[in-house]
Amino acid sequence: MRTTASVVFCTALLLASAFSSVAQTPEAQSAVPANQPAEVSFQFDHAGLPVPRFTLRIHENGTGTYQADQAETPATQTSMRGQAAQHVDRPINLTPGVVAKIFKAARGLNHFNVECASKAKNIADTGTKTLTYNGSDGSGSCVYNYSENKMVGTLTDIFLAIASTLDEGRKLEFLHRYDRLGLDAEMNSFADEVKEGRALELGTISSTLASIADDTAVIQRVRLRAAKMLEQVAADRP
């Protein structure tokens, strides 16, 4: 009797353990991907440009990275110092409003499981662009030179405008160090880009703008323009 009771008891324990494992497995499996933040990336390739290749990776919490290969810039008559080719890899942090637009568009495009590229012929080469989505809710990617899809076009404009700001930061840093008088024209041009929406997310270069605004060796109107841009950065942040 004791032997039989022992066998029954052990069998019951094994069955309870088995049912417990089965019940926990789906939760354990679903918890892993659910904890991984969704990411949207935009890669751009176009030979012959000052920045012929760059990749922006954005997480849904607004953090991300900017990686770029900058071409060599030779010296000119107005700038006696050129810039060597270099690779850039830096963290960035975007505003919630822009991040929301990016991820809403990505999901509206079925995580980029769509035909992005236009089938029209004789379209000018504006660079190869790749949109990619990775997240617990799906993944996908599409490649295009030009797209007739309005949502793809909107995303392209956003990413190009962010990249434009980041590259402008590089130019301003160079001029601040080697050609302070050249900052005047550059800041005027940059202000126009910002006003027309071709440069977004000024917060990604806030340290550069602050350095210019605080430098008494820089002419006053340039410092004031940099300070005004910093005010815009503060207003855009929640």
Summarize the SSE layout with pairings.
Blueprint: H1 2-34, E1 39-45, E2 53-59, E3 63-70, E4 86-93, H2 96-108, E5 128-135, E6 138-144, H3 150-178, H4 183-195, H5 206-213, H6 220-236
Antiparallel strand pairs: 1-2, 1-5, 2-3, 3-4, 5-6
Tell the overall outline.
globular
Order of H and E elements: HEEEEHEEHHHH
What composes the largest sheet? 6 strands, antiparallel
* Residue share in β-strands: 15-25%
Backbone structural class: alpha+beta
**Main sheet: strand order:** 4-3-2-1-5-6
Q: Please report the distance between the alpha carbons of the first and last residues.
A: 73 Å
Let me know the average pLDDT: 86
Helical content stands at: 40-55%
Number of E strands: 6
Low-confidence stretches: 1-32
Number of helices: 6
What is the alpha-carbon Rg in Å?
26 Å
Keywords: Signal
Signal peptide: 1-23
Question: If you had to describe this structure to a student in words, what would you say it looks like?
Answer:
By secondary structure, this protein is of the alpha+beta class. The protein is built from 6 helices and 6 strands; from the N terminus they run αββββαββαααα. It has helices spanning 2-34, 96-108, 150-178, 183-195, 206-213, 220-236, and strands at 39-45, 53-59, 63-70, 86-93, 128-135, 138-144. Strand 1 and strand 2 (53-59) form a beta hairpin. It is globular.
